[in-house]
Amino acid sequence: MKNTPLKYRLNVIGGGLIIFIAIRTYLPMAAQALGLRDNFNVWLAVYMFTLALACLAPVAFIEKMADFHPVLFEKRKLEPVHGLMVLQSMLIFIGLAVINSLILGVLGKVGINFPAQSLEPIDSMLTLVLYFIFSAVVPAICEELFLRGIVLNLLMPNGRRFAILASAVLFTVMHTQIQSFLPVFGAGVVLACIYLYTGNIFVSMALHFVNNAYSFIMLYMQQRVNGISAVGFSAFVMSVLLVGGSCSWMYLNKHNINIFDCLKKEGRNARISKFFASPVMVLGLISCAMAVFSQLYADLVL
C-alpha cells in the first residue's frame, strides 16, 4: 500500500466519495417513491440505514481496490486524559460555532439568509430515540470509520499534515452544507488530530458523538421546551462544557499535551493541489459541489 502512487489512492478515495454521494442522494429518493416517507419513524430508520451504508460501502470499496486493511481497534488503550482531550475539543467546536453564527449574521444583514437548523416534530419516545441514534450514534461510528479509519490512514504515507487536511476537506464536502463550512472543516481537522495523537479511533468516535449529541439536545430543548427553562438548561450545558473545556485545556497545556502537534510538518508532505491530479477525485468533488448547490438553491430560493 505504501508504494502505491498517491494518484491511484486518490482515485480510489474519489470513487468511494462518489459511492457515498450516490447512496445518500438516491436511496432516500427511492424510499420516498415507495411511500416510506409517510411514517416518520420508518423514515428515520431509512435515513439511518442510508447513512451507515453510504459510509461503509466506500470503506469496503477502498479496502478492496487499494488492498488496504488498517488495524483500527488494537492500538493504544483508552486513558483518562483522552476524556480531557474530548472536553478541550468541544471548547474549540463551540468557538467555531459562535464564529460561524457571527458570519451568518453578517450575511443575513446583506440579504443572504440561510434557514435555521431545526428538528422535525418529535411526538413519541420511539421517535426521540431513533432521531438521537440517527443524529449522534450512526455518524460517530460510520463517518469515523470512513474518514479517519480509512481515508486518513490511507493518505498518511504522503505526510501527516496532508492526510489531516485532505481528510478534513472530504469531511466538509460530504456534509454538503456551505453555511456550516467553517465548523465542519474545523471539526474534521480536530477529529483527525485527536485520532492520530491518541492512536485510538474510539476517542475520535467519542468526540464526534459528544458533539452531535450536544447539538441535538440543544436543538431539542429550544424547540420542545419554552421559556426560561429552555434558556436555563442551554446555559447550564454550555457552562459545563466551557468550564470543563477550559480546565482540560489548562491541564493538558501544563503537561505539554497538544493534539495539534500532529499538524507540525514532518518530512515531505504532498500538496492539497494533488487532489486535482486525480480525475476520479475531481469527479467526486464535482458531485459534492452539485449536491451543495442543490441544497443551497433549496435553502435560498425555494
Q: Tell me roughly what share of residues is in helical segments.
A: over 70%
Q: How many structural domains are formed by the residues?
A: 1
Specify the number of helices: 9
Beta-strand segment tally = 0
Largest sheet: none
What is the structural class? Answer: mainly alpha
Give the low-confidence spans. Answer: none
How confident is the prediction overall: mean pLDDT? 88
The geometry reads as: globular
Radius of gyration, Cα only, in angstroms? Answer: 20 Å
Return the string of H and E elements. Answer: HHHHHHHHH
Report how far apart the termini are. Answer: 47 Å
Describe this structure in words.
This protein is mainly α and 302 residues long. The protein has one domain (6-300). Helix content is 74%, strand content 0%. Helix 2 packs parallel to helix 4 (125-155). The model has no long low-confidence stretch (mean pLDDT 88).
What's the gist of this structure?
With 302 residues, the chain is mainly alpha-helical. The protein has helices spanning 6-33, 40-66, 80-109, 125-155, 160-175, 181-198, 201-224, 228-254, 279-300. The chain has nine helices and no strands.
List its traits.
302 residues; mainly alpha
Protein topology:
Elements: H1 6-33, H2 40-66, H3 80-109, H4 125-155, H5 160-175, H6 181-198, H7 201-224, H8 228-254, H9 279-300
